[in-house]
Amino acid sequence: MKRVVASGVVGLARLLAGGNVRRIGFTPDERQRIYFANHTSHLDFVIIWSALPKRLRFLTRPVAARDYWASGVKRYLALNVFNAVLVDRVRTDAATPNPLDILLGGLGERHSLIIFPEGTRGDGTRLGEFKSGLYRLGKARPDVELVPVYIDNLNRVLPKGEFAPVPMLASVSFGAPMHVGDGEEKADFLARARDAILELRQW
To answer: What is the pTM of this model?
Structure first.
């Protein structure tokens, strides 16, 4: 049943956002990776997940806000189809699990992750500054490749504040994998990672 639903989600995602996938210095395979992308819509991780080859989808776990995917059909999809890693947007007290620990647990020894370093959705016209999570993940798991992803036009498929998607041709571009350099400072790495996504806009 899960695979039937997943196939339907993939088909719907491609119908709504188009099937234009670019791989620029990137070859999909089963090694562990952290895909990091710009964030303009609740459909973002669905589109990236659907753009991966079928054999990789069930090894790749989107990271999503727990409150948005908390109930009903959304919760079913998040947990049973996407196998998403759900995190709290705000750490309210010491009892709230550390998000980095949750992400590292979700990564484990065989899975990949899809994350959005901006931490919140933008308007699709500019890329916001990156939060520190990507850097911390890269430092904690230097063996895992970090892959920049640029999603174009998706904010017009499901604009912020809207609930009904509108068919619109979108594209997903995967860039060359990268790592946190030895001794690289957080600000330098985050600027380099952000630039890697911006460079994909030119293709």
So the answer is: 0.87
Residue 46 structure tokens: 């669905």
More confident residue, 111 or 156: 111
CA angle 32, 107, 24 (to 5 degrees): 35
- Three-state secondary-structure class, residue 20: strand
Residue 185, pLDDT above cutoff 90: yes
- Tell me the C-alpha distance between 168 and 143, whole Å: 37
Evaluate if residue 37 carries a pLDDT over 50: yes
Q: Nearest Cα to 146, choosing from 191, 177, 102, 109?
A: 177
Q: Quote the CA–CA distance of 199 and 149 in Å, as a whole number.
A: 10
Measure the CA angle with vertex 9, ends 155 and 114; round to 5°: 60
Walk me through the domains of the chain, giving residue ranges and CATH numbers. Answer: 2-160+167-200 (3.40.1130.10)
Strand locations in the chain (E): 20-23, 33-37, 60-65, 85-87, 112-115, 145-152, 171-174
Please identify which residue in the block is written with the tokens 């806009």: 201
pLDDT category at 171 given cuts 50, 70, 90 is confident
What is the DSSP code string of 101-121? HHHHHHHTTT-EEEE-TTSS-
